[in-house]
Amino acid sequence: MTHPDATPTTPDAAPTTPDAAPTTPAPDGTPTDGVTPAPRDPLGTGTTPAHLPPDALRTALAERLTPAARTWLDHALDEAATHPGTHGPIAVWELRLAEAGRRCGPDHADAARVLILHAARADADALTRAYQQGTADERRAVLHALPHLVPGPGALPLVEDALRTNDTRLVAAAVGPYAARHLDAHSWRHALLKCLFTGVPVDHAADLARRARADTELARMLTDYAAERTAAGRTVPEDLHRVLALTESGTAASGPAAPHAEES
Amino acid sequence: MRIFDPHIHMTSRTTDDYEALHAAGVRAVVEPSFWLGQPRTSPDSFRDYFDALLGWEPFRAAQYGIAHHCTIALNPKEANDPRCTPVLDELPRYLVKDRVVAVGEIGYDSMTPAEDTALAAQLQLAADHGLPALVHTPHRDKLAGLRRTLDVVRESALPTDRVLVDHLNETTVKEAKDSGAWLGFSVYPDTKMDEVRMVALLRAHGPERVLVNSAADWGRSDPLTPRKVGDLMLAEGFTEDDVDRVLWRNPIDFYGLSGRLTLDPAGTGEATHEGNSILRGGE
Question: Model ipTM?
Answer without folding.
Answer: 0.89
